[in-house]
Amino acid sequence: MDIKQATIMFSALSQENRIMILKEIMKHGKQGLCPCHLVEKFELSNANLSFHLKELVNANLITKQKQGKFINYQANCEQIRELGEFLIETCPICHDKV
């Protein structure tokens, strides 16, 4: 991962609602999560949630998959893992603990 991609991802995560949304999506693994559950859980308007999901998709932190007439969102675990590794790759203390 390069610094530009890391910056895009951190920028997307600089908003509290997006972190909560990402963590909730991550709980559902490969099955993913329908946005309707997120609207209810976080009491966001459809437009507000749509904006946050778009930012997370654009940062490559989540993916969306159409299933019939519904869209499910899944965490992009590979990219999330790479972001964590990007942070610790040069730290001798952190790197030894992984």
Walk me through what this model shows:
The protein is elongated and about 45 Å long. It has one domain: Winged helix-like DNA-binding domain superfamily/Winged helix DNA-binding domain (Arc Repressor Mutant, subunit A), CATH 1.10.10.10. The chain has helices at residues 3-12, 16-27, 35-42, 46-58, 77-88, 92-97, and strands at 62-67, 70-75. Helix 2 crosses helix 4 (46-58). The chain contains six helices and two strands, in the order ααααββαα. A two-stranded antiparallel ribbon has the order 1-2. It is an alpha+beta fold and 98 residues long. The mean pLDDT is 92. The two termini are 18 Å apart.
Which structural class fits the helix and strand makeup? alpha+beta
What does the radius of gyration come to? 15 Å
Give the CATH level 1 class: Mainly Alpha
What is the count of helical runs? 6
